[in-house]
Write a structure and sequence with these properties.
heterodimer; A: globular; B: 112 residues; mainly beta; 7-stranded mixed beta sheet; 0% helix
Chain lengths: 112, 112
């Protein structure tokens, strides 16, 4: 049973618009959440994270929102750029220093 | 700035053959991980090592063995490769108490 789920395998957005990627989790013990970005033939790279004590974290064009009661988080990219086209993985962890549990990924395509 | 280095990048094996995937990190991280990525499944943890001299099973350990040779190196061995082990393998490392893991570029393994 997947503890972290990304229900949208793909998302297509026009350049300049907002991209919203969603992630749901089932394990209430998760206390830290991360988003990774992956280009073809490369390893995932860390993008942004959020602690369970917060409901929002912003870094430039990227904002992550956490709704603990719904066990849901989302990544907003504004404005979207063609270079943002990649696969995005949501990940969660119980206590920093333990292993990450990943979702299945969402492929984002930003059209010029 | 090598970060996490994996070798080889590509490999084709026949069913029943054995091989070892090598991984080294130069960030002085205590924790190291091996993940496999399959379409729609995200990254699934095979084995991890929280510190030199220790290893533990992850979500999908069957058919694999690991060795934490020293603080820098963590190898993954397939003793008798099976077609179900066709996948992309990623090594990662993280610092003590840190959630963010850094990934290598991956090894694309095909078992025929």
């Amino acid at each position: 049973d997947q503890q972290v789920k990304q229900n949208s395998p793909s998302l297509s957005v026009q350049e300049g618009r907002i991209s919203i990627l969603n992630c749901d989790y089932t394990n209430s013990m998760f206390d830290y959440f991360l988003w990774y970005k992956k280009y073809p033939a490369e390893g995932p790279t860390f993008l942004i994270s959020i602690s369970s004590i917060k409901d929002k974290n912003e870094d430039g064009r990227f904002t992550v929102f956490l709704n603990k009661s719904a066990k849901h988080l989302s990544l907003h990219i504004v404005p979207s750029q063609p270079g943002d086209s990649a696969v995005y993985f949501c990940a969660a962890i119980v206590n920093a220093g333990n292993m990450l549990t990943f979702g299945g990924g969402t492929r984002l395509m930003v059209k010029p | 700035n090598a970060g996490v280095t994996q070798t080889p990048k590509f490999q084709v094996l026949k069913t029943g053959q054995s091989m070892t995937l090598q991984c080294a990190q130069d960030m002085n991280h205590n924790s190291m991980y091996w993940y496999r990525q399959d379409p729609g499944m995200g990254l699934r943890l095979i084995y991890y090592s929280a510190s030199e001299g220790t290893t533990d099973k992850g979500e999908v350990p069957n058919g694999y063995n690991v060795s934490r040779l020293n603080k820098r190196e963590f190898s993954l061995r397939l003793e008798s490769a099976a077609p179900s082990q066709t996948s992309v393998y990623f090594c990662a490392s993280s610092g003590t108490g840190r959630a963010e893991a850094f990934f290598g570029q991956g090894t694309r393994l095909t078992v025929v």
